[in-house]
Amino acid sequence: MKELMPQESEPPLGVDLGTSELVLETNSTNKKLFTEAELLNSDFEIIGAAASNFRDKYFPTVSDKKWSSWKWQIQNSYTNFDELSQILDTSSVSDDVDFISKSNKLPLRITPYYASHFEGKSNNYPLIKSVVPTKLEFIVTEGEEEDPLHEESMCPTENLVHRYPDRVLMLSTGFCSVYCRYCTRSRMANKDPKSYGVKVWEKSIEYIRNTPTIRDIVISGGDPLTMPDKQIEYLLSQLRAIPHVEIIRLGTKVPMVLPQRITHNLVNMIKKYHPIFMSVHVTHPDEFTPEVKEACNRIANAGIVMGSQTVLLHGVNDHVETMKNLMHKALMSRIKPYYIYQCDPIPGSSHFRTPVSKGLEIIQGLRGFTSGYAIPHFVIDAPGGGGKIPLLPEYYQGREGDYVVMKNFEGKTYKYYDPIAVDNLNGL
Ligand code: SF4
């Protein structure tokens, strides 16, 4: 790992940070990110059967304690095809040594825990498709852009996106414990590491402090939960101290791909800064293992309200039954289904994109067929920075005189008496 300058990386609180307690760099592949003592310092103890079998096969000398340490998981992640070829057939891509630099430049990183899902599966397995690069990433189609939402044109400071009047998005780090091949912010992964860290955050905090209309902050990235507790606490405490900030949201995939990160220390620290919400990126029902359930339990028990975010992906989760199962499993782990996103047009992502009609078909297949609590909004984040636009199947069919005509979830037509003159009567 390339060392960051202390003033760029450490909270100016006089807190004692170990040298490895820095914002991790995106392209870091160094096996010595953490000290031996740090690798053993974890209170996560759940190891499900799939992970246990995988550990026994590929990491037979690694203790329960180490396997359950989020730092060990990051330090031993798969970051190149050589490593990945030990557990997967990578022959279709590993012949190309420059593969990553020629694709959309998103690094390869998969935690051993998440890789345990792959055991015994073909390369067509949804979770493999979502995080293992393929040469399809070389195909760039019309409308694809590095920054499809034009976020960089809405940045009052380097890492803050101010798109909506009352809320901002803070991009805290470029690092993720697993890189999703369809990531909207894949451009972040290649940014100069100086784009993150306390020095940059301070300017954004100052902007928020000076903008009283901002009541809601989303801290995302990269994945903010890959940062050490002290970095996260620095951000939360600074933001919570601003009187007009009402809610703070953390956008993360960590509970699904690195559940060991959800230590008691972490959630006990976060809950000091309530109200805190967490937007959890969920992709497929298979992600809900005993480890993930434990992580979600800890988060929910700390009073942190979780909502799901799912990118609709061809060949991964684009079936009504898969999506229904995913939403049910999320609810069972106390995550309220919140958004299904149309896959954003980043370069080399067309193999993931479904037609818009697929998203509508999925919503139609959920509404009426499961509890309302299990139904997320299907949205397109409008290219060019138009914000999230919800799309709904056509339940409203129009008017017939004093009646509104509607179709229910079974396709049957109903009329609701809604006289046009009612406003005039109210005015009397
Ligand atoms: S976890 Fe989120 S930010 Fe990180 S690669 Fe996946 S989608 Fe992108």
Task: Give a concise summary.
This protein has 428 residues and is α/β, with parallel strands linked by helices. It has helices spanning 6-9, 36-39, 49-58, 64-67, 70-75, 81-84, 91-94, 99-102, 112-115, 126-131, 198-209, 229-240, 254-257, 264-270, 290-301, 320-332, 356-366, 422-426; strands at residues 160-164, 167-171, 216-220, 247-252, 276-281, 305-312, 335-342, 377-382, 387-390, 396-400, 403-407, 413-417.
List keywords for this structure.
428 residues; alpha/beta; TIM Barrel; 2 domains; nine-stranded mixed beta sheet; three-stranded antiparallel beta sheet; binds iron/sulfur cluster
Helix-strand layout with pairing:
Blueprint: H1 6-9, H2 36-39, H3 49-58, H4 64-67, H5 70-75, H6 81-84, H7 91-94, H8 99-102, H9 112-115, H10 126-131, E1 160-164, E2 167-171, H11 198-209, E3 216-220, H12 229-240, E4 247-252, H13 254-257, H14 264-270, E5 276-281, H15 290-301, E6 305-312, H16 320-332, E7 335-342, H17 356-366, E8 377-382, E9 387-390, E10 396-400, E11 403-407, E12 413-417, H18 422-426
Bound molecules: iron/sulfur cluster (SF4).
Task: Give an overview of the whole structure.
- Helix content is 29%, strand content 16%.
- It has 428 residues and is an alpha/beta fold.
- It has helices at residues 6-9, 36-39, 49-58, 64-67, 70-75, 81-84, 91-94, 99-102, 112-115, 126-131, 198-209, 229-240, 254-257, 264-270, 290-301, 320-332, 356-366, 422-426; strands at 160-164, 167-171, 216-220, 247-252, 276-281, 305-312, 335-342, 377-382, 387-390, 396-400, 403-407, 413-417.
- The chain is built from 18 helices and 12 strands.
- The protein has 2 domains: 1-389, Alpha-Beta Barrel (TIM Barrel), CATH 3.20.20.70; 396-426, no CATH class.
- It has a 9-stranded mixed sheet. Strands 10-11-12 form a 3-stranded antiparallel sheet, with no helix packed on it.
- It is globular and about 75 Å long.
- It binds iron/sulfur cluster.
